[in-house]
């Protein structure tokens, strides 16, 4: 068993882009009766209702890091806690890239309270995104009803409104990424701009769509067909 434990902790160095494990993680519900360490990949997959391929994918994205006993991937209880958090995030539709950012931020947490606060903020952000998406669906449904009830003379009205919203190439690209759920931090990385430049860019987009915030601007853009839903 000592030899098995030794191999269990001989993990490979983190791959490029892989996040370091955090000493503090928000509390996520673990499966009942978790297995004893070392936890084989089959047990890990079974307890979380995922496939081996899913666990491999999370490793490739730096969300998890397996140990080895010979050629077999194995995990610890700490890995199960991390996987529980990942599972919770995926269940609410949080993109993998956002989970990567969340875990990166959590890796710098110096207390359980700070880790819980970081997670609560991520949940609030996701709630706003879902609310905006719901609003978009409702508006699209209403638009379809209007189009179906209008005669042919009115069919071009949405197109005329769409042309009135003039965007630069940079604004269009930024808007497309916003529609994909990119946070300001990710926008800064993707577009190669500073945080203050991203803030100004978002503000211009919001004004052009006569919106109150970034989520409303995205909803209007989707409704008008400026970006894909």
Q: Helix coverage percent of residues?
A: 55-70%
Flag low-confidence runs: 1-22, 151-163
- Sketch the major β-sheet: 3 strands, antiparallel
What value does the Rg take, in angstroms?
22 Å
Structural class: mainly alpha
Q: What percent of residues are in strands?
A: under 5%
Strands in their spatial order, largest beta sheet: 1-3-2
> How many E-type strands?
3
Compute the number of helices.
Answer: 11
Query: What value does the average pLDDT take?
Result: 80
Features:
11 helices, mainly alpha
Write the layout of secondary structure elements.
Elements: H1 2-8, E1 39-40, H2 41-48, H3 52-60, E2 67-69, E3 72-75, H4 77-91, H5 96-106, H6 112-149, H7 157-164, H8 169-179, H9 184-191, H10 195-208, H11 214-224
Antiparallel strand pairs: 1-3, 2-3
Helix pairs in contact: 6-11, 8-11, 9-10
Concise overview:
By secondary structure, the chain is mainly alpha-helical.
Please give a structural write-up.
It is a single chain. This protein has a three-stranded antiparallel sheet with strand order 1-3-2. By secondary structure, the chain is mainly alpha-helical. It starts with a helix and ends in a 5-residue tail after the last helix. It has eleven helices and three strands; from the N terminus they run αβααββαααααααα. A hairpin with a 2-residue loop joins strand 2 and strand 3.
């Amino acid at each position: 068993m000592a030899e098995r434990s030794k191999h269990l902790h001989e993990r490979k160095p983190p791959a490029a882009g892989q996040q370091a494990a955090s000493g503090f993680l928000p509390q996520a519900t673990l499966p009942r009766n978790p297995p004893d360490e070392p936890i084989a990949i089959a047990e890990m997959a079974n307890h979380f209702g995922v496939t081996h391929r899913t666990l491999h994918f999370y490793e490739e994205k730096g969300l998890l890091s397996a140990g080895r006993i010979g050629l077999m991937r194995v995990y610890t209880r700490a890995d199960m806690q991390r996987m529980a958090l990942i599972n919770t995030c995926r269940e609410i539709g949080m993109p993998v890239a956002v989970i990567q950012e969340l875990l990166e931020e959590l890796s710098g947490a110096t207390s359980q309270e700070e880790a819980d606060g970081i997670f609560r903020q991520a949940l609030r952000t996701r709630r706003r995104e879902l609310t905006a998406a719901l609003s978009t669906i409702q508006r699209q449904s209403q638009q379809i009803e209007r189009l179906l009830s209008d005669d042919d003379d009115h069919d071009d009205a949405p197109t005329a409104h769409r042309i009135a919203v003039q965007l630069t190439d940079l604004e269009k690209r930024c808007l497309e990424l916003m529609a994909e759920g990119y946070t300001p931090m990710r926008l800064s990385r993707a577009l190669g701009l500073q945080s203050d430049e991203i803030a100004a860019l978002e503000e211009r987009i919001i004004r052009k769509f006569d919106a109150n915030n970034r989520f409303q601007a995205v909803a209007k853009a989707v409704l008008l067909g400026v970006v894909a839903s």
